Amino acid sequence: MGTTRLATVPEPKYWQLKTVIGEALDSDFSVGEILPNERDLAARFGVARATLRQALEQLEMEGRLQRRRGVGTTVAPPRMGVDVSTTQHTWPGAAGQDSWQPVDSSMVVPPAAVARLLETRSGEEAHTVRRLRVTHGQSVATELLYVPSSSVPELSAIDAPSGPARARAVLRELQRLGLEGQERAVELGSARADDAKELDRLPGAPVLIVTTRYFAGGRTAAVSMATYRADTCRLTFGDSGDLEISHDEQERRAS
Question: How much is the average pLDDT of 35-60?
Answer without folding.
Answer: 90
